Amino acid sequence: MKELAVTTRDIARELARKYSTMTHDELTTLEGILVPMKFAKGDMIIHEKEVCKCIYYIWHGLIRQFYFKNGKEVTEHLGVDRSIFMCIESLFKEEPSKLQVEALEPSLIYALPKKRLEEEAIHNVNIQMLYRKILEESLIISQVHADLVRFETAQARYKKICQLNPQVVLRAPLNYIANYLQMTPETLSRVRTATLNEG
Question: What positions belong to coiled-coil segments (predicted)?
């Protein structure tokens, strides 16, 4: 299977295609930074109070980023194949994370240790560009989610996630999707039915 035969070189090329142009030597440098990691369904990728030291790229799999508020889990992010995640505050402040990250499917993830990335970015413009573009993307994703739950109706929230992240809607458990969209599973069920009936 192609998914199993992927190399760190393939991942370096994929990241360069997405975020920055790179020479052969720069790809080799990026390849040297990447750390492959495999997780089974239910494995914790980042634990609460752990310092996040990497940016993570999901080659294949599904993750959920969440925290506890008043004893209840709050899903902040659902990530799927070919996307980035990190605990941004912990990463930059080098403080224990309030967030946790769990694999919801068997996942192959490539870590980009921040320290190595920054060392290379100092004297490599294209790796600096890649780093900047990844951070920009992460901030935009956070802002889109914040605006979604602040300003949109339940139905508009659901339609937006279907449009932006159809794979998440197909693969993530409904209770996590509902939690991410800040609605009850019952509301999500009603909204889905109404949306399907519109179609």
Answer: none
